[in-house]
Design a protein that fits this description.
disordered C terminus; 12 helices; disordered N terminus; mainly alpha; 9 strands; 3-stranded mixed β-sheet; 465 residues
Protein backbone atom coordinates (compact mmCIF):
# COMPACT_ATOMS: atom_id res chain seq x y z
CA UNK A 1 0.00 0.00 0.00
CA UNK A 2 1.37 3.41 -0.93
CA UNK A 3 1.71 6.27 1.50
CA UNK A 4 1.73 10.02 1.02
CA UNK A 5 4.13 12.52 2.54
CA UNK A 6 3.33 16.04 3.66
CA UNK A 7 3.51 17.52 0.16
CA UNK A 8 0.97 15.08 -1.23
CA UNK A 9 3.42 13.15 -3.42
CA UNK A 10 2.57 9.45 -3.24
CA UNK A 11 5.45 7.03 -2.89
CA UNK A 12 5.99 3.45 -1.80
CA UNK A 13 7.46 2.78 1.65
CA UNK A 14 11.09 1.76 1.92
CA UNK A 15 10.15 -1.78 2.97
CA UNK A 16 8.60 -2.39 -0.46
CA UNK A 17 11.51 -1.12 -2.53
CA UNK A 18 13.06 -4.57 -2.72
CA UNK A 19 10.63 -7.34 -3.55
CA UNK A 20 12.88 -9.57 -5.61
CA UNK A 21 16.30 -11.15 -5.46
CA UNK A 22 18.80 -12.58 -7.90
CA UNK A 23 20.24 -15.10 -5.44
CA UNK A 24 19.55 -18.79 -6.12
CA UNK A 25 17.54 -20.80 -3.65
CA UNK A 26 19.63 -23.14 -1.49
CA UNK A 27 18.73 -25.54 1.36
CA UNK A 28 18.52 -23.65 4.64
CA UNK A 29 17.68 -26.41 7.09
CA UNK A 30 18.05 -30.14 7.58
CA UNK A 31 15.02 -32.09 8.66
CA UNK A 32 15.76 -35.34 10.50
CA UNK A 33 12.55 -36.96 11.64
CA UNK A 34 12.51 -40.32 13.35
CA UNK A 35 9.66 -42.66 12.51
CA UNK A 36 8.35 -45.19 15.01
CA UNK A 37 5.77 -47.84 14.28
CA UNK A 38 3.09 -47.88 16.96
CA UNK A 39 1.09 -50.89 18.06
CA UNK A 40 -2.67 -50.95 18.59
CA UNK A 41 -2.50 -50.04 22.30
CA UNK A 42 -0.28 -47.02 21.69
CA UNK A 43 -2.56 -45.83 18.87
CA UNK A 44 -5.58 -46.11 21.19
CA UNK A 45 -3.84 -44.03 23.85
CA UNK A 46 -2.96 -41.33 21.31
CA UNK A 47 -6.52 -41.28 19.99
CA UNK A 48 -7.92 -40.82 23.49
CA UNK A 49 -5.41 -38.07 24.19
CA UNK A 50 -6.33 -36.20 20.99
CA UNK A 51 -10.05 -36.45 21.82
CA UNK A 52 -9.48 -35.04 25.29
CA UNK A 53 -7.42 -32.22 23.83
CA UNK A 54 -10.15 -31.38 21.33
CA UNK A 55 -12.86 -31.22 24.00
CA UNK A 56 -10.71 -29.13 26.31
CA UNK A 57 -9.75 -26.76 23.50
CA UNK A 58 -13.36 -26.25 22.39
CA UNK A 59 -14.42 -25.51 25.98
CA UNK A 60 -11.66 -22.92 26.22
CA UNK A 61 -12.83 -21.29 22.99
CA UNK A 62 -16.39 -21.08 24.30
CA UNK A 63 -15.17 -19.44 27.48
CA UNK A 64 -13.11 -16.93 25.49
CA UNK A 65 -16.09 -16.02 23.29
CA UNK A 66 -18.30 -15.59 26.33
CA UNK A 67 -15.69 -13.34 27.90
CA UNK A 68 -15.57 -11.18 24.77
CA UNK A 69 -19.35 -11.04 24.66
CA UNK A 70 -19.39 -9.89 28.29
CA UNK A 71 -16.92 -7.14 27.38
CA UNK A 72 -19.24 -6.08 24.52
CA UNK A 73 -22.16 -5.89 26.97
CA UNK A 74 -20.08 -3.70 29.29
CA UNK A 75 -19.39 -1.31 26.40
CA UNK A 76 -23.10 -1.28 25.58
CA UNK A 77 -24.11 -0.34 29.12
CA UNK A 78 -21.36 2.28 29.27
CA UNK A 79 -21.98 4.12 25.99
CA UNK A 80 -25.51 3.00 24.94
CA UNK A 81 -25.18 4.23 21.36
CA UNK A 82 -25.21 0.89 19.56
CA UNK A 83 -26.33 -2.64 20.24
CA UNK A 84 -24.21 -5.43 21.71
CA UNK A 85 -23.41 -6.99 18.31
CA UNK A 86 -21.89 -3.72 17.14
CA UNK A 87 -19.48 -3.58 20.07
CA UNK A 88 -18.68 -7.27 19.63
CA UNK A 89 -17.72 -6.60 15.99
CA UNK A 90 -15.66 -3.60 17.08
CA UNK A 91 -13.70 -5.73 19.54
CA UNK A 92 -13.03 -8.37 16.88
CA UNK A 93 -12.01 -5.75 14.30
CA UNK A 94 -8.36 -6.75 13.98
CA UNK A 95 -6.32 -8.68 11.46
CA UNK A 96 -4.61 -11.93 12.30
CA UNK A 97 -2.01 -11.46 9.61
CA UNK A 98 1.58 -11.16 10.75
CA UNK A 99 2.25 -7.44 10.94
CA UNK A 100 6.00 -7.61 11.58
CA UNK A 101 8.82 -10.06 11.37
CA UNK A 102 11.53 -10.74 13.85
CA UNK A 103 14.79 -8.89 13.38
CA UNK A 104 18.25 -10.43 13.18
CA UNK A 105 19.72 -11.52 16.51
CA UNK A 106 23.42 -12.13 17.24
CA UNK A 107 22.65 -14.89 19.69
CA UNK A 108 20.64 -16.81 17.08
CA UNK A 109 23.43 -16.26 14.56
CA UNK A 110 25.99 -17.61 17.04
CA UNK A 111 23.88 -20.70 17.78
CA UNK A 112 23.29 -21.36 14.07
CA UNK A 113 27.02 -21.13 13.26
CA UNK A 114 28.12 -23.35 16.14
CA UNK A 115 25.44 -25.94 15.41
CA UNK A 116 26.64 -26.18 11.82
CA UNK A 117 30.26 -26.65 12.95
CA UNK A 118 29.36 -29.39 15.45
CA UNK A 119 27.23 -31.31 12.93
CA UNK A 120 30.03 -31.16 10.36
CA UNK A 121 32.42 -32.67 12.88
CA UNK A 122 29.92 -35.42 13.68
CA UNK A 123 29.43 -36.16 9.96
CA UNK A 124 33.20 -36.56 9.50
CA UNK A 125 33.30 -39.09 12.35
CA UNK A 126 30.39 -41.02 10.86
CA UNK A 127 27.86 -39.99 13.51
CA UNK A 128 24.36 -38.68 12.92
CA UNK A 129 23.49 -35.02 13.23
CA UNK A 130 22.04 -33.62 16.45
CA UNK A 131 19.55 -30.89 17.21
CA UNK A 132 20.38 -27.58 18.80
CA UNK A 133 18.93 -28.70 22.16
CA UNK A 134 21.88 -31.07 22.61
CA UNK A 135 24.37 -28.18 22.61
CA UNK A 136 22.26 -25.37 24.07
CA UNK A 137 23.69 -25.47 27.63
CA UNK A 138 27.27 -25.48 26.39
CA UNK A 139 26.68 -22.70 23.86
CA UNK A 140 24.89 -20.55 26.44
CA UNK A 141 27.81 -20.77 28.85
CA UNK A 142 30.26 -19.94 26.06
CA UNK A 143 28.16 -16.96 24.89
CA UNK A 144 27.86 -15.48 28.39
CA UNK A 145 31.63 -15.70 28.89
CA UNK A 146 32.34 -13.56 25.79
CA UNK A 147 32.60 -9.75 25.81
CA UNK A 148 30.48 -7.54 23.56
CA UNK A 149 33.38 -6.97 21.15
CA UNK A 150 34.06 -10.71 20.95
CA UNK A 151 30.38 -11.41 20.30
CA UNK A 152 30.25 -8.85 17.48
CA UNK A 153 33.48 -10.15 15.94
CA UNK A 154 32.25 -13.75 16.06
CA UNK A 155 28.85 -13.01 14.52
CA UNK A 156 29.45 -10.31 11.87
CA UNK A 157 29.84 -12.80 9.03
CA UNK A 158 27.05 -14.98 10.39
CA UNK A 159 24.65 -12.01 10.45
CA UNK A 160 25.25 -11.39 6.74
CA UNK A 161 24.68 -15.05 5.92
CA UNK A 162 21.44 -15.19 7.91
CA UNK A 163 20.21 -12.02 6.18
CA UNK A 164 20.86 -13.57 2.76
CA UNK A 165 19.24 -16.79 3.93
CA UNK A 166 16.06 -14.91 4.92
CA UNK A 167 16.03 -13.10 1.60
CA UNK A 168 16.35 -16.36 -0.32
CA UNK A 169 13.65 -18.03 1.76
CA UNK A 170 11.21 -15.17 1.22
CA UNK A 171 11.82 -14.06 -2.37
CA UNK A 172 13.92 -16.60 -4.29
CA UNK A 173 12.23 -18.64 -7.02
CA UNK A 174 11.56 -22.27 -6.18
CA UNK A 175 13.70 -24.78 -8.05
CA UNK A 176 11.21 -27.64 -7.66
CA UNK A 177 7.66 -27.15 -9.04
CA UNK A 178 6.19 -29.25 -6.22
CA UNK A 179 7.58 -26.87 -3.59
CA UNK A 180 6.15 -23.91 -5.51
CA UNK A 181 2.77 -25.65 -5.50
CA UNK A 182 2.79 -26.23 -1.72
CA UNK A 183 3.95 -22.67 -1.07
CA UNK A 184 1.12 -21.30 -3.22
CA UNK A 185 -1.44 -23.60 -1.63
CA UNK A 186 -0.59 -22.74 1.98
CA UNK A 187 -0.33 -19.00 1.29
CA UNK A 188 -3.62 -18.84 -0.59
CA UNK A 189 -5.40 -20.85 2.11
CA UNK A 190 -4.29 -18.39 4.78
CA UNK A 191 -5.35 -15.47 2.56
CA UNK A 192 -8.76 -17.05 2.00
CA UNK A 193 -9.31 -17.37 5.75
CA UNK A 194 -8.35 -13.75 6.33
CA UNK A 195 -10.53 -12.48 3.46
CA UNK A 196 -13.48 -14.56 4.63
CA UNK A 197 -13.15 -13.11 8.12
CA UNK A 198 -12.81 -9.60 6.66
CA UNK A 199 -16.00 -10.09 4.63
CA UNK A 200 -17.83 -11.33 7.71
CA UNK A 201 -16.69 -8.41 9.87
CA UNK A 202 -17.09 -5.57 7.38
CA UNK A 203 -19.35 -6.87 4.59
CA UNK A 204 -16.80 -5.98 1.90
CA UNK A 205 -17.15 -7.69 -1.51
CA UNK A 206 -13.85 -9.28 -2.50
CA UNK A 207 -12.44 -10.97 -5.61
CA UNK A 208 -9.09 -12.74 -5.70
CA UNK A 209 -7.58 -14.40 -8.79
CA UNK A 210 -4.43 -16.51 -8.70
CA UNK A 211 -3.10 -18.36 -11.77
CA UNK A 212 0.18 -19.97 -12.69
CA UNK A 213 2.70 -18.35 -15.00
CA UNK A 214 4.55 -21.48 -16.13
CA UNK A 215 3.26 -24.69 -17.69
CA UNK A 216 5.55 -26.71 -15.38
CA UNK A 217 3.67 -25.56 -12.28
CA UNK A 218 0.97 -27.73 -10.73
CA UNK A 219 -1.45 -25.26 -9.16
CA UNK A 220 -4.81 -24.76 -10.85
CA UNK A 221 -6.51 -21.36 -11.17
CA UNK A 222 -7.65 -20.20 -7.74
CA UNK A 223 -10.64 -17.92 -7.18
CA UNK A 224 -11.91 -16.37 -3.96
CA UNK A 225 -15.24 -14.62 -4.43
CA UNK A 226 -18.09 -13.33 -2.37
CA UNK A 227 -21.75 -13.55 -3.40
CA UNK A 228 -22.32 -10.14 -4.97
CA UNK A 229 -18.91 -10.07 -6.62
CA UNK A 230 -19.62 -13.41 -8.31
CA UNK A 231 -22.93 -12.21 -9.79
CA UNK A 232 -21.35 -8.94 -10.96
CA UNK A 233 -19.49 -10.58 -13.85
CA UNK A 234 -22.57 -12.43 -15.08
CA UNK A 235 -24.75 -9.31 -14.95
CA UNK A 236 -22.33 -6.70 -16.36
CA UNK A 237 -19.89 -8.61 -18.59
CA UNK A 238 -22.04 -11.53 -19.68
CA UNK A 239 -19.44 -14.10 -18.69
CA UNK A 240 -18.56 -16.12 -15.63
CA UNK A 241 -15.58 -15.61 -13.36
CA UNK A 242 -14.26 -19.04 -14.28
CA UNK A 243 -14.02 -18.02 -17.93
CA UNK A 244 -12.14 -14.85 -16.99
CA UNK A 245 -9.70 -16.82 -14.83
CA UNK A 246 -9.04 -19.35 -17.59
CA UNK A 247 -8.29 -16.54 -20.04
CA UNK A 248 -6.01 -14.91 -17.48
CA UNK A 249 -4.13 -18.17 -17.07
CA UNK A 250 -3.68 -18.51 -20.83
CA UNK A 251 -2.48 -14.92 -21.04
CA UNK A 252 -0.03 -15.43 -18.16
CA UNK A 253 1.39 -18.66 -19.58
CA UNK A 254 1.55 -17.79 -23.29
CA UNK A 255 2.02 -14.01 -23.05
CA UNK A 256 1.86 -11.55 -25.95
CA UNK A 257 4.37 -9.57 -27.93
CA UNK A 258 5.47 -6.25 -26.51
CA UNK A 259 4.13 -4.38 -29.54
CA UNK A 260 1.43 -5.72 -31.79
CA UNK A 261 2.09 -5.69 -35.52
CA UNK A 262 -1.46 -4.73 -36.44
CA UNK A 263 -2.72 -1.29 -35.31
CA UNK A 264 -6.22 -2.71 -34.72
CA UNK A 265 -7.54 -5.89 -33.22
CA UNK A 266 -7.84 -8.64 -35.84
CA UNK A 267 -11.00 -10.64 -35.21
CA UNK A 268 -9.87 -13.56 -37.34
CA UNK A 269 -6.59 -14.70 -38.84
CA UNK A 270 -6.59 -15.59 -42.54
CA UNK A 271 -3.83 -17.68 -44.09
CA UNK A 272 -5.72 -18.19 -47.36
CA UNK A 273 -5.77 -14.93 -49.34
CA UNK A 274 -3.40 -13.43 -46.77
CA UNK A 275 -2.56 -10.43 -48.97
CA UNK A 276 -6.24 -9.50 -49.51
CA UNK A 277 -7.52 -10.12 -45.98
CA UNK A 278 -4.53 -9.06 -43.85
CA UNK A 279 -1.89 -7.08 -45.74
CA UNK A 280 -4.24 -4.76 -47.63
CA UNK A 281 -6.29 -4.03 -44.48
CA UNK A 282 -3.73 -3.98 -41.66
CA UNK A 283 -0.39 -3.42 -43.51
CA UNK A 284 1.06 -6.62 -42.01
CA UNK A 285 3.41 -9.01 -43.82
CA UNK A 286 5.06 -12.24 -42.69
CA UNK A 287 8.86 -12.37 -42.76
CA UNK A 288 11.06 -15.49 -42.99
CA UNK A 289 8.40 -18.21 -42.98
CA UNK A 290 10.46 -21.40 -42.39
CA UNK A 291 8.19 -24.00 -44.01
CA UNK A 292 7.54 -24.77 -47.66
CA UNK A 293 3.79 -24.05 -47.37
CA UNK A 294 2.17 -21.00 -45.79
CA UNK A 295 -0.85 -22.25 -43.86
CA UNK A 296 -2.48 -22.31 -40.46
CA UNK A 297 -0.38 -24.15 -37.80
CA UNK A 298 -3.44 -26.29 -37.06
CA UNK A 299 -3.25 -27.67 -40.63
CA UNK A 300 0.34 -28.92 -40.16
CA UNK A 301 0.42 -32.66 -39.52
CA UNK A 302 4.18 -33.02 -38.94
CA UNK A 303 5.46 -32.59 -35.38
CA UNK A 304 8.93 -31.64 -36.61
CA UNK A 305 7.55 -28.86 -38.78
CA UNK A 306 5.52 -27.55 -35.83
CA UNK A 307 8.65 -27.48 -33.67
CA UNK A 308 10.58 -25.64 -36.38
CA UNK A 309 7.79 -23.06 -36.69
CA UNK A 310 7.49 -22.68 -32.91
CA UNK A 311 11.21 -22.05 -32.38
CA UNK A 312 11.26 -19.67 -35.36
CA UNK A 313 8.60 -17.50 -33.73
CA UNK A 314 10.14 -17.79 -30.24
CA UNK A 315 13.55 -16.60 -31.50
CA UNK A 316 11.99 -13.82 -33.65
CA UNK A 317 13.48 -15.38 -36.77
CA UNK A 318 9.93 -15.48 -38.14
CA UNK A 319 7.60 -12.62 -37.29
CA UNK A 320 4.70 -10.53 -38.49
CA UNK A 321 5.91 -7.06 -39.37
CA UNK A 322 3.93 -3.92 -40.05
CA UNK A 323 4.81 -1.92 -43.17
CA UNK A 324 5.60 1.76 -42.93
CA UNK A 325 3.61 4.31 -44.91
CA UNK A 326 6.19 4.41 -47.72
CA UNK A 327 6.53 0.63 -47.86
CA UNK A 328 2.75 0.19 -47.93
CA UNK A 329 2.43 2.71 -50.81
CA UNK A 330 5.08 0.82 -52.78
CA UNK A 331 3.33 -2.47 -52.04
CA UNK A 332 -0.03 -1.09 -53.23
CA UNK A 333 1.55 0.35 -56.41
CA UNK A 334 3.22 -2.94 -57.28
CA UNK A 335 -0.02 -4.78 -56.52
CA UNK A 336 -1.95 -2.44 -58.84
CA UNK A 337 0.60 -2.79 -61.67
CA UNK A 338 0.53 -6.57 -61.33
CA UNK A 339 -3.28 -6.57 -61.48
CA UNK A 340 -3.22 -4.26 -64.52
CA UNK A 341 -0.75 -6.49 -66.35
CA UNK A 342 -2.76 -9.60 -65.59
CA UNK A 343 -6.00 -7.94 -66.70
CA UNK A 344 -4.42 -6.84 -70.00
CA UNK A 345 -3.13 -10.34 -70.62
CA UNK A 346 -6.59 -11.82 -70.04
CA UNK A 347 -8.19 -9.26 -72.37
CA UNK A 348 -5.72 -10.01 -75.16
CA UNK A 349 -6.41 -13.72 -74.85
CA UNK A 350 -10.18 -13.29 -75.18
CA UNK A 351 -10.23 -10.59 -77.92
CA UNK A 352 -10.11 -11.20 -81.69
CA UNK A 353 -12.41 -14.20 -81.61
CA UNK A 354 -15.11 -12.64 -83.85
CA UNK A 355 -15.60 -14.07 -87.32
CA UNK A 356 -15.30 -12.18 -90.63
CA UNK A 357 -18.30 -10.69 -92.40
CA UNK A 358 -19.96 -13.13 -94.76
CA UNK A 359 -22.78 -13.10 -97.24
CA UNK A 360 -24.92 -15.54 -95.28
CA UNK A 361 -27.48 -14.77 -92.57
CA UNK A 362 -25.78 -17.09 -90.09
CA UNK A 363 -22.44 -15.28 -90.47
CA UNK A 364 -24.08 -11.83 -90.09
CA UNK A 365 -26.12 -12.87 -87.06
CA UNK A 366 -23.05 -14.44 -85.41
CA UNK A 367 -20.95 -11.33 -86.03
CA UNK A 368 -23.74 -9.08 -84.77
CA UNK A 369 -24.15 -11.15 -81.63
CA UNK A 370 -20.41 -11.02 -80.82
CA UNK A 371 -20.13 -7.29 -81.58
CA UNK A 372 -23.06 -6.20 -79.39
CA UNK A 373 -23.08 -6.57 -75.58
CA UNK A 374 -25.11 -9.48 -74.31
CA UNK A 375 -28.44 -8.28 -72.87
CA UNK A 376 -27.29 -4.68 -73.18
CA UNK A 377 -24.50 -5.15 -70.58
CA UNK A 378 -20.77 -5.30 -71.02
CA UNK A 379 -19.26 -8.51 -69.72
CA UNK A 380 -16.51 -7.79 -67.21
CA UNK A 381 -13.31 -9.77 -67.02
CA UNK A 382 -12.74 -10.87 -63.41
CA UNK A 383 -9.62 -9.26 -61.94
CA UNK A 384 -6.73 -11.56 -61.19
CA UNK A 385 -5.85 -12.24 -57.55
CA UNK A 386 -2.28 -13.35 -58.21
CA UNK A 387 -0.66 -10.23 -56.88
CA UNK A 388 2.66 -9.70 -55.19
CA UNK A 389 2.96 -12.05 -52.24
CA UNK A 390 3.05 -10.79 -48.68
CA UNK A 391 4.96 -13.78 -47.26
CA UNK A 392 8.71 -14.32 -47.63
CA UNK A 393 10.81 -17.42 -46.97
CA UNK A 394 13.87 -17.63 -44.74
CA UNK A 395 16.02 -16.83 -47.77
CA UNK A 396 14.09 -13.64 -48.52
CA UNK A 397 12.31 -15.09 -51.57
CA UNK A 398 8.60 -14.52 -52.13
CA UNK A 399 6.33 -17.42 -51.21
CA UNK A 400 3.12 -18.30 -53.02
CA UNK A 401 0.08 -17.59 -50.88
CA UNK A 402 -2.72 -20.09 -51.33
CA UNK A 403 -5.88 -18.65 -52.87
CA UNK A 404 -9.41 -19.77 -52.33
CA UNK A 405 -10.52 -21.64 -55.50
CA UNK A 406 -13.70 -20.60 -57.28
CA UNK A 407 -16.66 -22.94 -57.19
CA UNK A 408 -16.97 -25.38 -60.12
CA UNK A 409 -20.04 -25.11 -62.36
CA UNK A 410 -22.56 -27.86 -61.88
CA UNK A 411 -22.83 -28.50 -65.63
CA UNK A 412 -19.05 -28.80 -66.16
CA UNK A 413 -18.37 -31.48 -68.78
CA UNK A 414 -22.04 -31.86 -69.76
CA UNK A 415 -22.55 -31.55 -73.56
CA UNK A 416 -24.82 -28.65 -74.56
CA UNK A 417 -26.62 -27.84 -77.85
CA UNK A 418 -26.18 -24.74 -80.02
CA UNK A 419 -26.46 -21.45 -78.20
CA UNK A 420 -29.75 -19.64 -78.72
CA UNK A 421 -29.82 -15.89 -79.33
CA UNK A 422 -32.74 -13.50 -79.10
CA UNK A 423 -33.92 -11.71 -82.27
CA UNK A 424 -35.53 -8.29 -82.60
CA UNK A 425 -38.96 -9.85 -83.04
CA UNK A 426 -38.68 -11.59 -79.70
CA UNK A 427 -38.09 -15.09 -81.07
CA UNK A 428 -35.02 -17.23 -80.65
CA UNK A 429 -32.62 -18.49 -83.23
CA UNK A 430 -29.71 -20.89 -83.04
CA UNK A 431 -26.26 -20.32 -84.46
CA UNK A 432 -27.51 -21.66 -87.86
CA UNK A 433 -30.90 -19.84 -87.88
CA UNK A 434 -32.65 -19.38 -91.21
CA UNK A 435 -35.05 -16.60 -90.24
CA UNK A 436 -34.42 -13.17 -91.71
CA UNK A 437 -32.64 -10.81 -89.32
CA UNK A 438 -32.03 -7.16 -90.21
CA UNK A 439 -28.43 -6.60 -91.13
CA UNK A 440 -26.28 -4.41 -88.99
CA UNK A 441 -25.75 -2.02 -91.89
CA UNK A 442 -29.49 -1.74 -92.76
CA UNK A 443 -31.09 -2.32 -96.20
CA UNK A 444 -32.86 -5.31 -97.71
CA UNK A 445 -32.10 -8.70 -96.32
CA UNK A 446 -30.31 -10.85 -98.92
CA UNK A 447 -31.66 -14.22 -99.86
CA UNK A 448 -30.09 -16.93 -97.71
CA UNK A 449 -27.58 -19.16 -99.44
CA UNK A 450 -29.17 -22.32 -98.15
CA UNK A 451 -32.66 -23.34 -99.28
CA UNK A 452 -35.51 -22.61 -96.87
CA UNK A 453 -37.27 -25.73 -95.58
CA UNK A 454 -40.68 -26.38 -97.11
CA UNK A 455 -42.32 -26.45 -93.72
CA UNK A 456 -41.30 -22.88 -92.96
CA UNK A 457 -43.58 -20.00 -93.94
CA UNK A 458 -42.06 -17.97 -96.79
CA UNK A 459 -41.27 -14.37 -95.96
CA UNK A 460 -42.17 -11.81 -98.69
CA UNK A 461 -39.20 -10.07 -100.16
CA UNK A 462 -39.46 -6.24 -99.76
CA UNK A 463 -39.40 -4.27 -103.03
CA UNK A 464 -38.14 -0.82 -103.71
CA UNK A 465 -40.06 1.77 -105.64
Amino acid sequence: MSTANGEGVIRYPAAMCKLQTSKPRTPWCTCTKSRYKLNAAQKAVLKKKREEHRIEYNDALVEARESIHNKAEELFHRFEKHNVDYYYAEIMQHSRLKSHKRGLNRWNAFVSGKLKERNEELAQNGESKKKVSAFMAELSTQWKGMTTEEQELATDDLMLKIGEQREVKELAVHNVPLRAFHDSRKTLESMDRELEALHTRTGMEILLFAVRSDVDHFNRPHVFQTDHAASFFDACFGTSINQVVLRLEGYSVAGVQEEAAAPLKISRMYYVNFDDNITSKYRVVCKNWPLSRFCCPGDISSLNELRVLFHAFMTNATKFQRLSDMEFEQWMEQRFQQALTQSSRNSSDTSGVGSEEGNTLAARSTATTEAQPHNGRKRKTPPSTQFINSVSTSGGMAMTVSKKPRATRKDKGVPRGPRKTKTRTGGTASGSATEDVPAATGGPVPTPATPVPTSATPVPTPTTS
